[in-house]
Write a structure and sequence with these properties.
Distance between the termini of chain A: 14 Å
CATH class of one domain in chain A: Alpha Beta
Structural class of chain A: alpha+beta
CATH topology of one domain in chain A: Ribosomal Protein S8, Chain: A, domain 1
Largest interface: A-B, 75 and 75 residues
Strand order of the largest sheet of chain A: 2-3-4-13-5-8-9
Oligomer: homodimer
Number of strands of chain A: 14
CATH superfamily of one domain in chain A: Malate/L-lactate/L-sulpholactate dehydrogenase, NADPH binding domain
CATH architecture of one domain in chain A: 2-Layer Sandwich
Order of helices and strands of chain A: EHHHEEHEHEEEEEHEEEHEHHEH
Radius of gyration of chain A: 20 Å
Largest sheet of chain A: 7 strands, mixed
Number of helices of chain A: 10
Helix content of chain A: 25-40%
Shape of chain A: globular
Chain lengths: ~350, ~350
Amino acid sequence: MDNQTIVVSADALRDSGKKALAAAHVREDIIDPVINGLIWTSLRGIDSHGIRLLPHYIAGVKGGRINPDPNMSFVRSSPAVGMVDADHTFGHASGMKAMGHAIELARESGMGAVGVQNSSHCGAMSWFAHAAAQQGMIGLAFTHATPRVKSPGSNRAFFGNNPVCLVAPMHDEEPFCFDAATTSITFNAVKAAAAAGKTLPPGLVADAQGIETTDPHRAEQLLPIGDYKGFGLSMMVDILCALLTGMPEGNKVSKMFGESMSKKRLLGHFFCAINIASFTDLNRFAARLKQMADNVRAEPALEPSRPVMVPGDPEKKAWAERMEKGVPVPGIVWHEITR
Amino acid sequence: MDNQTIVVSADALRDSGKKALAAAHVREDIIDPVINGLIWTSLRGIDSHGIRLLPHYIAGVKGGRINPDPNMSFVRSSPAVGMVDADHTFGHASGMKAMGHAIELARESGMGAVGVQNSSHCGAMSWFAHAAAQQGMIGLAFTHATPRVKSPGSNRAFFGNNPVCLVAPMHDEEPFCFDAATTSITFNAVKAAAAAGKTLPPGLVADAQGIETTDPHRAEQLLPIGDYKGFGLSMMVDILCALLTGMPEGNKVSKMFGESMSKKRLLGHFFCAINIASFTDLNRFAARLKQMADNVRAEPALEPSRPVMVPGDPEKKAWAERMEKGVPVPGIVWHEITR
C-alpha cells in the first residue's frame, strides 16, 4: 500500500497536515503558511515541492534543523528595502512574511525588496510571487539551493539550480507565472525516473565524475540550460540570496538531503514586489498581459492537438483537475502524515 | 579593403565616431553616451553590439528613425520608481539617463527602478548595469528585441531573445557581469557563420518553417535555452520592458533590420539599481563576491589548459588585449565611419 499512489482531497490533506505539524509542536501561525504553501503547490501539479515534503520537514523539526517556535524579525533599512531574520524556521513562513513586507514597501515606494536570512527550505517560489500579483503587483522570488549544477568546463557542481520566478496579474485569468530552475530537469525528477526504471534523454545530467549520462541511477549533477547561461543565472541568484543576506554561498550552501537533520540550513531568499500602478494603469497592464498570453496561445502549433502554451498553463490545468479530483499522494507520504 | 578587418585604437574610434555623429547633427550630449557605450562594448569583445552598429544608427538618424535632438523627460512617480520618455533618441542616451535616475532613487530608497518608453536600440545591457556597480550597487538591465525566438510547440517566433543582465561590484577586480540573451546563439553570430561559410552546431536555430537546421543561410529563428525556460525568460523581460512602459510587445516589437529607417522603433527598457549598503556592508559584499568568483575559477577543469570561468571573464580578457592592441573593425564599417 505504501508503494501505491492514493488520491486525497485538498481539504483532507490540509486537515491531516495541520495535525501532523501541530503534533510536532509547530506554532499555529507557522503551520498556516507551511500547509497552505504545500497544498497550493500540490494542487498546481508541482509534486516535487508539494505535500510530499511534509514528512521531511517534520523530521527537520524533530531533529532541530527547523525551528517550530521562531522569533522572526523584520528591519526596514530604507524606504524600499528590508531584511527578515527567519530564526531558522520554515522558509514558507519567513518567505511569506518577507513578501508581505515587500508588498507594503512597494505600496509606499513603488517597489520593495526584502531579503531573508537564517531560513530553511521554502518550497515553490511561485507561491510567494502570487501573493504580490494578488495585490496588483509584479512579484519576483529567488532562492538558492543545494549545489547540483555542473559548472561549464569543470567536472563538478558549484551552484544550485537556483530558480528565477516572476508572477504578474492578468485580466480575467489567474496570474501569469514563470518559475524555473536553471537546469532542464530537477533532481527530484531524476529520482523519479530512477524509481520508474526509465532512461533519461541525453544532455540533461552528468555522473559524479562530470561525464554526461542518461542513467538516472548514476546522475549526480544537472546540466545548466544554455551551458554558461544557466550557470550564470544560478550565480546571479546566489548573489541576491547569499551575498545580500550574509548566508553561505555556492558550494557552501547546505544539502537538503544526506546531512544531519539537526543541522540548520542557513538559507537566504530574495523577494521583490513592483507596484504596477507606479508605472502604468493596472487594468490596462492586466488586459495587455492577458492579450499577450492569448496571442501566444493562438500561434500556429506544430501539432494541432497540442496548442502553444505560456508559462503557468500546465499548472492551471493541473489545478482545475486536482481541485475536482484530489491530489495524488504517494502512499508512504500519506501514511507518514496520518500516522 | 572593405572586406578586410583593420585594427583601430579606441581613441581613434572615438574621434572618428564622434565626428560621424556630429556630421549627422546628433546633439553633443547624445553623442557622448552613444560613442562611449559602443566603444566600451567593442573593447570588451562584444562586436555584435559595438562600433559596427554606428553606420546603422547614423542611417537611422538620417532616415528619421532616431531623434538626434530629443526632448527627453523623467517623471518620478514613487520614491523608488520613475519613467524616462526617450523621445525616440538613441537607447544609449535614454538608458544611461534612466540608470542614472535609478541609482539616485536607490541611494535614497535602497532600490530604484526606472522604465524607458519611446526608445530605440540601446546596445549592450552590461554597459548600463556597470554604471550602478561603479556606485557600489547591483545593476540590472533589460530590453526587449526583434522577435526571433521560436516558441516551443510552434513553428514561428513570438518574442525576442530579450537579455537578462546583472552586474555587481567585486573587490580588487572589475565588476562581476552576467549579460545573456535567452538563446544560445545571436542572430548576428548566425550571420557571421553564414558569411564565413560555416555550418552551425545542431540545436541552435530553425528555418522560416520552424524546422531545426545547421545551415546558417536558412536560419530565421533562434531556439531558446532550456526550451520553454528561455522562452519564459523572454516573456518575463517583455512584461517589464513593454507592458510596464506602454510600448508594443512580443511579435509587435519592431524589426531592427529590413524595415524603413524612417520608422520609429518604439522600444522599452527596464533598469534597476539595488543599493548594497541597504542590505549589508558593501566592502564585505564585494570581498565575498571576489572570493566566490575565485573559488569558481579554482574548480577542477575538464581540460587543465582551460580554467573554469565566471560570466564576464572572456570580456575582461578581451578588454586587456584590445586596450593594448586596438579594436578589430570590419573595413567597410571603418570606411563608412570615416568617409
